[in-house]
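Ex. 9. Protein: Helix-turn-helix domain-containing protein.
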Amino acid sequence: MSSMLLGERITNLMELQNTSKKQVCESLHIHPSTFSGYLSGKRQPSYDILMRMAAYFNTTCDYLLGYTPPQNSMLDLSDDAVAILQACGNLSPEGQDILKDEIKLILHHYQKQPK
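Predicted structure tokens for Helix-turn-helix domain-containing protein:
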């Protein structure tokens, strides 16, 4: 297993879920410096921490360790989702930045709504 791969996958999951390092550390009861070590590849999580990370990010230990490919692929997306992604790809970099900011606001708003 590449320890750098673990850090990259965790970082990608954090971006996808719009989660901060602080939120992850608090939820998993991990010291920020320890978590930074996982992200940089300088430290390896224990089995218990790895299991908690997988549960937190709603993924598998195999994915975090690099034994399985990313779970989300274009094949898993609906036609509407693919069309939206293609339209986003046609925007200028500035337009993409604006869209990302708008999506973050929408996600933030709906994550606070009662289910």
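Check your answer against this statement. DSSP finds seven helices and no strands in the chain.
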